[in-house]
Design goal:
Blueprint (H helix, E strand, L loop, with lengths): L3 E5 L3 E7 L14 E7 L1 H11 L3 E9 L2 H14 L6 E4 L5 E7 L5 E6 L8 H9 L4 E6 L5 H13 L4 E3 L17 E2 L3 H8 L6 H13 L4 E5 L5 E4 L4 E4 L12 H14 L4 H15 L12 H9 L8 E2 L2
Parallel strand pairs: 1-4, 1-8, 2-6, 4-5, 8-9, 9-10, 10-11
Antiparallel strand pairs: 2-3, 6-7, 11-12, 12-13, 13-14
Helix pairs in contact: 1-7, 3-4, 5-6, 7-8, 8-9
């Protein structure tokens, strides 16, 4: 039996409008597609990992409202059994994400966290300790940042590994960095955390070195179509992105994180887990939505093992 992944984080009901452009201040455009559905960075990652064959427990907070009721149904439909860490709380609004998508698949998102902000470190640690054979705990920052940081510090003290996808990016206390085994920002989030403006893989390496200097064990910085950089205390590796035509990039980073965790739990080496996650994300951006776009293990393995447009990790010089 595979070790278990615990994802502690957010669920958001999603409202999506797709059109030729994302409106700026004072602008109005006529869109062509509208739909509602499930999302939230924590839920996206939990579903992605589950579809990749991992054992997953998802710990989150929902409101007792239609969006919360939908969440339970969606998570069972797309993510299978995830344990009893999903709680609905009276008097709280389930988190909501408002998403605009343009004709090139780019997006602009506003999140109203709602019940997500009531998830506590005590609840996360208790949920993890209730499990056996936990491989790693995944975090994001759509919940209360102080509570997420406290949970990571406490889990680290218990010898439990953590991954932080620091989105939406926020300043972090220096004390939390040594408690993070893997941090996975994109280029914008890495710039906010380190102050390094990132345009190239070399820039990403400099940002990664700062994160390692703060105590993180591994920094994985995603650069979208430019690929991914892996930085540890002893090596720096570049993994090229698979070239695809994007239809909707919403949630691609979450699909990457969940698929990456699943690959690691199955024994993939670090760079190969990144390459596997790149392929899962590449499949997802060619589809609309997030839960609906997340690929299965069978789909991802077919692309990962194919010789068509295959990418290989290379050491950075």
């Amino acid at each position: 039996m595979q070790p278990k992944i615990v994802i502690a984080g957010s669920y958001n009901g999603v409202i999506v409008a797709k059109g030729p452009q994302i409106p700026g201040v004072g602008e109005t455009f006529i869109g062509d597609t509208f739909f509602t559905g499930p999302g939230g960075k924590g839920a996206n990652q939990a579903v992605a990992a589950s579809l990749q064959g991992a054992q997953v427990r998802f710990v989150c907070k929902l409101g007792r409202d239609p969006y919360g009721d939908d969440a339970v149904r969606y998570l069972k439909q797309y993510g299978g059994p995830m344990g009893d860490g999903i709680r609905q709380v009276a008097g709280a609004q389930t988190g909501i994400a408002l998403i605009f998508v343009d004709g090139a698949g780019n997006n602009s998102i506003m999140v109203v966290p709602g019940a997500n902000l009531s998830l506590t470190a005590d609840e996360i640690v208790a949920a993890v300790q209730a499990e056996t054979d936990v491989f790693m705990v995944g975090f994001q920052l759509e919940c209360d940042v102080a509570q997420m940081c406290e949970a990571m510090i406490r889990l680290n003290a218990l010898g439990i590994k953590t991954l932080l996808d620091p989105a939406p990016a926020a300043p972090l206390p220096m004390a939390v960095y040594p408690a993070i085994d893997i941090i996975k920002p994109n280029e914008h989030e890495a710039e906010i955390l380190t102050g390094v403006h990132i345009e190239t893989p070399q820039d990403a390496c400099r940002a990664g070195e700062i994160l390692i200097g703060r105590g993180v064990k591994t920094a994985i910085i995603t650069l979208g179509a430019k690929g991914t950089v892996i930085v540890t205390a002893t090596e720096q590796t570049f993994v090229p992105a698979r070239v695809v035509e994007a239809r909707d990039t919403t949630g691609a980073g979450d699909i990457f994180s969940g698929s990456f965790l699943a690959a690691l739990a199955k024994g993939y080496a670090l760079a190969e887990a990144v390459r596997y996650a790149n392929d899962a994300a590449a499949i997802s951006v060619q589809r609309l939505g997030v839960f609906e776009a997340a690929p299965t293990e069978t789909e991802t393995l077919a692309l990962y093992r194919s010789g068509t447009g295959a990418t290989q990790a290379v050491p950075m010089v």
